[in-house]
Amino acid sequence: MLAGNVVEAGWVRVGPTGRLVRVASQEGRFWRYEILMIRTERGELLGKAITDSKRETLLPDSYDRVVRIVSGHEADALYAREYARQREAKRVFVDLARAHKLDMHLSEVETYHNEPKILFFFTAPGRVDFRGMVRDLASQLRARIELRQIGVRDEARCTGGLGPCGQPLCCATFLREFTTVSIRMAKLQGLVPNPQKVSGLCGRLMCCLAYEQDVYVEKLRTFPKVGAVVQTPEGEGKVREIMIMRGIVKVTLDSGDLVDFPLSELTVVSPGDYEDDDVDGDDVDFDG
Questions:
Q1: Other residues' Cβ atoms within 10 Å of the Cβ of residue 203
Q2: Could you identify which of 17, 75, 214, 273 might form a hypothetical disulfide with 35, taking C-beta atoms 3.0 to 4.6 angstroms apart as the criterion?
């Protein structure tokens, strides 16, 4: 069993889009809003603490190490220098991609403190042979170059933006990893299964559909199934629709009327045709 380290742990935002990184220090505490130099597996980066550190026991590979706290004036100078490097790197990348006739879209550039290394994140419709371009990038920028092709979800995380809710994208702020999202989740939550209505900026189903899925599934188990025959205060009828969060069941009575009843007023006479498994499965992600 691996032993953990007792550290002062917290969260910082790094990079142009402010992605979240778990960090820890063995030297002392740090406080919210302080600028930290952190050491990642790729190099040293500046980040702003968004929490006060808290004493915890963590496995060594579960966090990035805080190298030191950076003073305000030094932080301004370092940010300005890295911004200038990234701006120049973007210009060179775009020019060379055009010169090499490569269909590549640059998403983000990451530079590292006191290290001649630049990491480019890009998207492309297919596999790209960029070996010649890497040599030219290294020559012009005088740095070690790494190009990483990413998917549309990662591109949204890199570029940031506002979601349909009007808030900054979850993936570019607090979301640390992507989970499977299925069109079945949208149907269960009563949302119209229209790609334009339930898709995010990346064109995939919105990650937030998964946030309340467990609650919907648990509540659904207390409802009669669509198609079930139920006894109501007005006689028998067949379940036409359920409204989970409102606790309402729409029932078609023998008279043909469609009436709303509270769940508590119904008794199941004959179950419906589908099983619980119909709402539990995780479908493959919907591309929109």
A1: 14
A2: 75
